[in-house]
Amino acid sequence: MEAGQKKEIAETTQILQQTFISEKELLLKKEKMVEEEKERLERLYEDELKKSQSLKDEQSDQMKKLEDEKHRLQASMEEALRKQKEAEDLVHDKQKELQEMEEKRQQKEKQLAEENRILREQLEAQKKIKEMAPIQQVTVTPVKAISNGRDMVDSAAESEDTKLTFSGLRQPVTAGRLQQAGILSRKQLDKLKKGSVTVQELSQKENLKTYLQGKSCIAGLILEPRNEKLSIYQAMKQGILKPTTATSLLEAQAASGFIIDPIKNKKLPVNEAIKEAVVGPELQEKLLSAERAVTGYRDPYTGNTISLFEAMKKDLISPNHAIRLLQAQMATGGIIDPLNSHRLPLEQGYKQGIIDEKMSKTLPSDTDETKGYFDPNTQEYLTYFQLMDRCQVDPETGLCLLPLTDEAVTHMEGYTTEQTRDIFSTATVSVPSGKYSGKTVTIWELIHSGYFTEEQRRDLIRQYRSGKVTIESIIKYIITIIGESEAKKQLLFDGLRDKVPASELLESKIIDKKTFDGLQKGKAIPEDVGKLDSVKRYLQGSDSIAGVFIEPTKTKMSFYEAMKKNMLSPSTAEALLEAQAGSGFIVDPVKNRTLTVDEAVKEGLVGPELHEKLLSAEKAVTGYTDPYTGRKISLFEAITKDLVSKGNGIRLLEAQIATGGIIDPVHSHRLPVDVAYQRGMFDQEMNKILSAAADDTKGFLDPNTDEDLTYQQLKERCVTDPETGLYLIPIKDSQIPQVVESMVHSEVETREVFENTTVELPEGTLGGKSMSVWEILNSELLTEKERLRLTRDYRSGKITRERLVVVIIEIIQQVEIRRGYEMITFNTFRGKITADQLYSSKIIDMETLNMLKDKRLTVQQVCEMESVRKYLFGTGAISGIYKCAGKEVLTLYHAMKKGLVKPEITDALLEAQAATGFMLDPVKNKRLSVDEAVREGLVGPELHDRLLSAERAVTGYRDPYTGKTISLFQAMKKGLIAKEYVLRLLDAQLVTGGIIDPEYSYHLPLETAYQRGYLDRETYSLLTDPTEGPQGFHDPSTEEPMSYTQLLKRCRVDENSGQRLLTLTDRKRLVFKGLRKQITMEQLVASDIITSSDAAQLLEGEITVEQVSDSIKKYLEGTSCISGVFVEATKERLTIYQAMKKGMIRPGTAFELLEAQAATGYMIDPIKNLKLTVSDAVKMGVVGPEFKDKLLSAERAVTGYRDPYSGELLSLFQAMQKSLILKDHGIRLLESQIATGGIIDPEYSHRLPVEVAYKRGLFDEEMNKILSDPGDDTKGFFDPNTEENLTYLQLKERCVVDSDTGLCLLILKDKKRERKTSSKSSVRKRRVVIVDPETGKEMSVYEAYRKGLIDHQTYTELSEQECEWEEVTISSSDGVVKSVITDKRSGRQYDIDDALSKGLIDQGSLDLYRSGALSITEFADMLSGNMSGFRSRTSSVGSSSSYTSQQASPMRSHMVTWNDPVEETCPVAGILDTDTLEKVSITEAMHRNLVDNISGQRLLEAQACTGGIIDPTTGEKYSVTDAVAHSLVDKIMVDRINLAQKAFNGFEDPRTKTKMSAAQALKKGWLYYEAGQRFLEVQYLTGGLIEPDVTGRVSLDEALQKGTIDARTAQKLRDVGAHTKYITCPKTKLKISYKDAMDRSMIEEGTGLRLLEASSQSTKGFYSPYNVSGAGSSAGSRSGSRTGSRTGSRRGSFDASGSGYSMSFSSSSYTSSSYGRRLASTVPGGREMVTMSMSSRPLPNPDESSVFTQMQLLQVSMM
């Protein structure tokens, strides 16, 4: 047992030992592994440490290199400056040397001339010898010289230098040029010259090679993982690259040197690349355009070659496109200089003007603007640098290839090519038209038919493969393309200038419907139809008279040639050539060609002297431009608008008719006469004139018989050329002398008479001398033209010898006078002019001219006159910048280079300098030409071409046709320069003295320039209109656009030099955004909006403009106005206009709110959260066009009103004070401004604190009291939910703020639902208030009765009018629900259902009430019978006037036919007192209280605007001033009526002194809308509109054609029922329009005067200044609603603009046209007293505001 235990212990021990050993080994292994891992980590750490150290060392090396490079660049720059100095010295020496050589050359020439003289003398001597001895030849060796006088040594030296050339991008580049560009060092150039290094060796250097040939651009694609190379074009063709991506990459290739073929490793120009099919021809135009970045663009102004950046600056290429191409150039080696054919470093490019500073910063930047290239792998936009970084370098060719992954290819291809083809081959289309019409064809067949181009086919396949389009959409697209293709292919005809569609021929009745259908179905083609005589006649016309046929010689000749050969007189030839131009083309009868006028002048078929005249005639074909509308109009329309003289126009019209028909220039074909009638291109009157063949239409002369004929008659006398079929006028042998003119005296006889006739010369330089006529004719006293004319006239017998002597004496006298004036010359800024020219230009008057001649005035004295000096030398342009910091004066160019002024602002100012005479140097006080300015460094060479072009505004442009010098405006008319550019330069010229005459270099007065054709009427108006004139300049401080006049006002004048300098402070960027323009910090400080401490912090940079803008946002932008509505039921946001259109709010309410928006800043779109001007809002449909005029008028509360007298800008309050806007209307707009931030100052375009508004006169205490008291005067807005009148602030407080936009929205509740469910609704009060006009005190009806102001009957009637209506819903026990209208004052009740069953109302009226279109007060009146009760109540003086109220739908139920007045009629001339039968003037009627003051003023205005104030006793008309003398007008009325008188005499433009009609003044804003509309209505009703320069009246149709008024204004005038009711009828006391006043007037027999009836006994009537039409109260009235706001009383008024009820009044029942008979029938026995007091009549509409009169005018308003 023990042994067993020992054995067990031994085994256990063994096991343990083995376990220990194995574990020990395991631990050792682990320890070893740990050691190994530790060693590995240590090695890794050491490696990382080494890498870190190496990176650090590398970074240090790079920094060192950068420092070295910096020092090197500085050294090179210093070296370059030194070299530049050396070069300048060298140039100076060379110039000196050239001068010396020139002197030597001249000496040699003199020596040679002397030798030649001696030789000639010797030769002459030799000739005299009979037997000539052999003469030894003398050879003179010519001196070799070049034009600048250098000898051949210099040339050899120069040629030696030019041998050192390198291969550039397109042409060799000299070593000198490379050294000048900083690419080649001076040391390398010296080595080259010494021969120690060759051009080839240097060309291989990497940096030089880069600038000469560039680096590789992105040459193609490499498809991964196949490593297949593709050109970019191949990738596009295979659908791997999008066309836009491929095109941009190919353009980058072309713009950086060459198109690359990555397969063959070729560089090719674009044209060669297309030849070798590297790219397709469809890209040729785009790639050639891009290639110009290498070869250079052509400057259209100068013809010079310019770089890519310069082309961008001249708008020849878009900025984005230019940046993309410039970036590609930068990435491939540098900016390309096309003139020198090599690249430049960025810095050198900037220095040499290839780019500017801004572009040099833009190109390397990583912004959205520079990311113009698309990575097809990542679908992101990158810069060209970034895209090149993602490329691979092809090891074989070294080209950059863009890798394209499988994912990118798959993304492009949703389907494989095979799948797409299978699908397209199975899908079929039923084709409706064309060659496959009615057939079912597969998509594959159709896209490979002739209907689709290769590009369209590829695009369709690519889009389908990418999954972007479905088969269905492809089928629709195919059908559309085929339809359009067939239409284009089959249905277009060749017109006179353009293609004419068949639909136009059908509409013009040239082809019938059957022919048109045949064309559409393909049964006929345009070519065949166009050959039909009936069609060809209208498309091409018949032949005009082409030329002349000379019968003796059988030769054909053009009219111009015949004129030049004296076979046709000039007038005859010109008339026939004009007929050719006006009927289609100028005809060449010899070569059988038809040419446009321009082509004919270029070809020499007609001379350049006829160019302008024939171009004018050609407009009969191409169309005239309407100066008012800008649209194209026909010849007839141009005649009616006086754009063409009637005589000339008739002649051209007759030629058109004789050659096929009236030409429609818009559609480019002729018209049948009836169609021409319809289109307004002909009329019956003109047809009668042309058909009559009277002398008026015989505008052509038969050269054979000297008869005046029509064109048709002359054409009938022509012969037809058998070769060409052209019409030719035969010129017979016997008739040719008649054309030249038969001569009475022969040449010999004439000379003999002239030699024997002596003339005693008058006083002058030849005074007292006798000379023969022959001597005088051949002297300098007469011109060649005068000599020929007098000789011809004498020989032909037109003048006698005695008359000839008289004519000669007159000519000599004129010459002597002219010589006297011509001796008096004045210096201009670039030349000289005579005193006579100054007089003819209206710069000096005749008195000054005579004083100059008599030497009572010297030239110096006249030059010192300011009125003369400004025209001779100008007043001076803006010359530079005055920098406040340091009081430094800078030139504009240097200010730009220092970054103080933007380049585009500087360019415009420098162009203005060049265009007004000289470039100005304010530092050295110099005036220089552009060339001199560039030489002296005043401006940089990069601006040279631009400024030379502007300088031509002074020196003149060259006419490409005639070679003559023409003015700036004439160059624009010939299409040589853009209109905006011309207006900018003309604006600068006009402000600095006047329009410049380029021939004599002086300024012209505007009117003279217009008369001489240096501008037209349209340009004249634009330059003189302060609101619509050009604003081509910008303030460098605020960058605000403005005219040159405005900019000059902001300049300071230098005390020493007198130069005008724009002030520029360090605070120039401290500008804030106002309502319409920028506001400076100083303006805000002056307005007490920001404090001086805030300004100081802004200047120190402690706070920013943005921070301050946020704190004063109330004044800069204002708070939100009521921007829209929020429909509570649907949670929908709507614009106010949309809510009105949907019937949710009434038109009157909507207009008030929209007007408040316009007057507080902008129209608001609450859905898109946009702020818009009125014009933009109308364009975008935010408001309708029917509101445009009135909203534009309201918008002037922001932009300012124009004072019609001074032209100054006025605020809203100032406009109210000057009666340019009605007071109550202005109050409403002012209140809305105050509620949204403050009163707006239109001059500075921001809101003001009230105190500042006081100081500036934009507000006063009285108005503040009115607006501060929330009484009825300020409650001009209507709550559609509660039907209350509120102030704007109160209404705004009821709005909700939109959480998304922060805008105020008016809540709209569901009123229908409320009426049905609530027990009470629509409580409406009405109270009558009596106002004593003397004290202004208001009182109740009872108080007025107690004080004896009204009688008991009136008190009773007015008390009955007071009520408080409400609707109550009553539910009975049996469940019946009734709606009852109850008056809480009187207890009266009306059951709505009962009234409906009894017929008191109908369902339509109930629906109108439920919809809100009728107020509860109106509805209650209908239930009570008050509305119908008016029918039975009448008051008359022997006559009856009936008052009817009819229910009407919102649309008019009855339209009255109205025709325009055709005869001039008298306005209302006076008042007839029907009680005394006395005629009195309007003013006397006002004194007698027969007419209220406002109505009286309106009646006087009507007289003044139609001819004068009328005296009804005599019928005489007087001016306002004379009318005061005759007691027809009170002095207090003069200012009020003067404006109306201007509507007759014309409004004078304060700048141009030209007269405008009322319509034009209204259009230009010189006349406020309400007054202008009144004047136009009165003029229209009395016979037509009045224009100051037209005799008689102008019909609306004429005014429309002239563009004086627009169609909307004409429609308003013709809608007489909608004319404003601004007159209170003196008889009925109701509001009427002027049309109603005329209808109610009686016409006195004999005088024809209109007299409006009134009753002196009717003192208890009701004066109602407001009615349902919504007319506003008069200026100064405080009782009543605002214009367009609401009708009814001030307290408790309602919006009735949507009402379907209107009051109509029948005219007086007088039926006899005889005044005497009227009296007899009306007043039997002489006089009849009033049978019923007007006070017994209740108010026609209980909601109308009324005024009661007794003994004195008492105003009554309903509340």
Describe the protein in words.
With 1759 residues, the chain is of the alpha+beta class. It is built from 81 helices and 84 strands. The strands form 35 sheets. The chain has a four-stranded mixed beta sheet with strand order 4-3-14-13. Strand 49 and strand 50 form a beta hairpin. It is globular, with a radius of gyration of 46 Å. Mean pLDDT is 78; it is low at 130-161, 734-741, 1312-1323, 1427-1456 and 1658-1759.
List keywords for this structure.
four-stranded mixed beta sheet, 45% helix, 1759 residues, 84 strands, single chain
**What is the first-to-last residue Cα distance?**
136 Å
Content of β-strand: 15-25%
How many helices does DSSP assign? 81
**Biggest sheet layout:** 4 strands, mixed
Helix-and-strand structural type: alpha+beta
Residues in helix, %: 40-55%
Radius of gyration: 46 Å
Mean pLDDT figure: 78
Summarize this entry quickly.
With 1759 residues, this protein is an alpha+beta fold. It contains 81 helices and 84 strands. The radius of gyration is 46 Å and the shape is globular.
Question: What is the strand and helix layout of this fold?
Answer:
Elements: H1 2-127, H2 152-162, E1 165-167, E2 172-174, H3 175-180, H4 186-194, H5 199-203, H6 206-213, E3 218-223, E4 228-231, H7 232-237, H8 243-255, E5 259-261, E6 266-268, H9 270-275, H10 284-295, E7 297-298, E8 305-306, H11 308-313, H12 319-331, E9 335-337, E10 342-344, H13 346-351, H14 357-362, E11 373-375, E12 380-382, H15 384-389, E13 392-393, E14 400-404, H16 406-412, H17 417-426, E15 428-430, E16 440-442, H18 443-447, H19 454-465, H20 471-490, E17 492-494, E18 499-501, H21 502-507, H22 513-520, H23 526-530, H24 533-539, E19 545-550, E20 555-557, H25 559-564, H26 570-582, E21 586-588, E22 593-595, H27 597-603, H28 611-622, E23 624-625, E24 632-633, H29 635-640, H30 646-658, E25 662-664, E26 669-671, H31 673-678, H32 684-692, E27 700-701, E28 708-709, H33 711-716, E29 719-720, E30 727-731, H34 736-740, H35 747-756, E31 758-760, E32 770-772, H36 773-777, H37 784-795, H38 801-822, E33 825-827, E34 832-834, H39 835-840, H40 846-853, H41 859-863, H42 866-873, E35 878-883, E36 888-891, H43 892-897, H44 903-915, ...
Parallel strand pairs: 3-14, 19-30, 35-46, 49-60, 68-79
Antiparallel strand pairs: 1-2, 3-4, 5-6, 7-8, 9-10, 11-12, 13-14, 15-16, 17-18, 19-20, 21-22, 23-24, 25-26, 27-28, 29-30, 31-32, 33-34, 35-36, 37-38, 39-40, 41-42, 43-44, 45-46, 47-48, 49-50, 51-52, 53-54, 55-56, 57-58, 59-60, 61-64, 62-63, 62-84, 64-65, 65-66, 67-81, 68-69, 70-71, 72-73, 74-75, ...
